[in-house]
Amino acid sequence: MAGIIAAETNNGLGIAGINPRAKVQHIRILGSCGGTTSDEIAAIRWAAGLPIPTDLLAGNTAPPINPTPAKVINLSLGGESPCSDAEQTAINAAVNAGSIIVVAAGNSNLDLDLRDYAPANCNNVITVAGTEVNGNRLVNTSNYGSKVEIAAPGRAIKSTMNDGTTTPTSSWSYKLKTGTSMAAPIVAGVVSLMLSHQPTLTFIDVRHILQTTASPFPAGSECSSNPSNTFYCGDGIVNAASAVQALPGYTARGALVDLTPNRVLDTRDGTGGVPREKVGNFSGTAADLRFRILGSGSIPNLGVAAVSMNVTATQTSAPDEGGYVTVYPCATGLPEASNINFTNGQIVPNAVIVPVGNGEICFHVYGSAHLVVDVYGWLPFGAGFTTVSPNRVLDTRTGTGGVPVSRIGNFTGTAADLPFTILGAGSIPASDVAAVSLNVTVADTDAPDEGGYATIYPCAVGRPNVSNLNFTNRQIVANAVIVPVDVDGRICAHVYGSAHLIIDVNGWFSVGAGFTAVDPSRVMDTRDGTGGVSVVRVGNFTGTAADLSFTIVGTDGIPSTGVSAVSLNVTAAETSAPPVGGYVTVYPCALGRPNVSNLNFRDRQIVANTVIVPVDDFGRVCLHVYGTAHLIIDVNGWFPGADPTLLNQT
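Now predict its structure.
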């Protein structure tokens, strides 16, 4: 039952629970020989934070009062007997104390209006019938009648299972089970989602919302929502999305909850409680750095599917073939993917969207480097962005993805672009995808004197006048890219110069989600005044020059209102840097400049990075440069305003 309610997600294992951030208390009522009503009463009272009467203790010492009373109590049990006065009194006390009790209707094929079956026929509980995959009543199984409030799937429900017979063992597995005992925890999980948003909901509130938002039984189902019919199975089949969206004060979140950028980890000075030492070694066998991202830097402890951050490798040392950094959810294991590539003595940043799994993210370094992490936002569960464990879907060095084993591009920019069908690749669905989140790397590069670049774009719309990565000769350069897919599910890669191309995928945005992808376009360039800015480099060597303010809303594809954050590719060109190096920080102007950076550069470089940045109340972003550089902004999408109220998960 616990797995159905709250199994972890984004770990590549087994199943996903209805509310994976729910806190679960296990209270044993039944043993191998069953149990008694007094056991059930004691369990209900203790779960609700109430004392257990002496007559139920059988001479045993009373346990301490439960310090964390359950907001939802699931009872996947029952038997053919009336609801006793003592049982009803315990249920009433628990409900009055604030608990919502969900019970299985039972699997005896009984009409609960004619036959006794407790606790399903008690008052003040939400009784759940079970349905087949097609929405019919569980064949010759599920109880029915006017005592039933709602139905939920009960056929072949997979959940976690421990193989112990008397006590838990270390042997865990997943098994399929059928019955109303599986349907009840589905409803209990939905109730916990509702209470996550509205913790003050009462039993009456919850029952009403569940019943009025339920999906109707399909045509031909034996189950009916008409109490006059024989097989009454409640008001319909539970609908989690509709129940949550019907809550008072509910506002749909955007795909991104943006934050004021802030530094959460720095191995140079121990920020974040990490060791003050470089990570990695030249054999790739050093222990990966583990860091609990949930609860750090305004990231909540609950309700987070992924985080958006900027990761920088600095003071790097690399073997001859180069070093790299991989950021991944610790629970899934190290993937064959990379986020940052470096050589000796570099400062290399990259934007990273990483699933949080069990709340810890890991950093693997091949070579050695200090690591700096700045967070920009987080993506909630169910808000339109689906994370996947990072995985490689294309590599022209090896032919991964069915592409030719050859470098792309030429020095005139006239070589054929590389099309690739991204839908259906690497855990990306074959349909209903608006945009994909990628890490794109160029390797074995050759560039003309002015430098080379790569552009990733939806094939059908034609190549835009933008770039995602910039390179010179013999480099390995990576950058995060959020790109729309075209109507055929494709993206195209254009290279000016020549390079091998590697694409790792880490997530996707669904159609109609809280992220609106736009065809990439250039909205600002200080080299030629695009966007109405001055034709002059930004910054100075003391960091005291005026920051560049730019109104991003209302530019190509970005609405003038309703925007909370934008997805950009920011490039610094014609750079000059002090001996310690230069950097660029992009931030919402009205909030003041944070102690973070988005790009790092040396003299005479062209450096690009993806930046997901909130806009201020006037629709502006500001750019600060330590050193001097021309700045170019290409826009590829935007996030709508998000509900700022954080989830209070139960």
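The longest helix spans residues 180-197.
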